[in-house]
Amino acid sequence: MAHTTATVLNVPLHIVFLPTKDRWLIRRGKLAKRYGELFMAPAPSLRRVQMDAWELRSNFLANMPDEHAVLAFLNATGRFSSHGSVHSVQEFLEWQRVIHDLLETSSFHKAHGSPRNDKFMVIFNAENEFRFSLDIWKGAEEGVAVIEAKSSLQAIVATVLIDRIRGTKIQFCARPDCGRPYAVTSSHERKYCESYCAHVESVRRTRRKKRKQHKSKEEVQ
Ligand SMILES: [Zn+2]
Hints:
The protein is α+β, with helices and mostly antiparallel strands. 45% of the residues lie in helices and 14% in strands.
């Protein structure tokens, strides 16, 4: 009889993501119709600076008011996906929604299986094939597991799966011009990703209140 031994390796897991230097542009008119609105001029080299995958995901999920914000994200991160790029601002925003749903929905498989996400889930699943290595880093006593992400979407896919596996509860910042995700770490209720956003919203509330009081005073006079 064969014996199977399952051993869980308890080592830190790193996602290594180096953005590429690819340049993104927006096409207009006929060209956009024929080839897609978003165009990437590929550059073979990588930036030397590693980007934290969770920070990358946070920037990706931030509310983007216009196409310039989308372009800024793409130009800071390079290649979006190795399995079918992103061809329009609309498609980029749909990707944001898909990742948002996968993080927020209590049942991963419910979000995963919804028909709306089909086209995206094919790519999502294709990105879930990482170059994975076990390593012992210089100076470190213990080993590390390393996931090498080849595109920003692949790094984001890794963070989504890791967060789901370790049961991290994610909420989204209530400041309308932020919307970034944050991990719920205590039972203390929180509406904003950081104190900066809470402060901005509190200033806005005070201003609204003052304006309202001012208006009703005018009405009385
Ligand atoms: Zn925020």
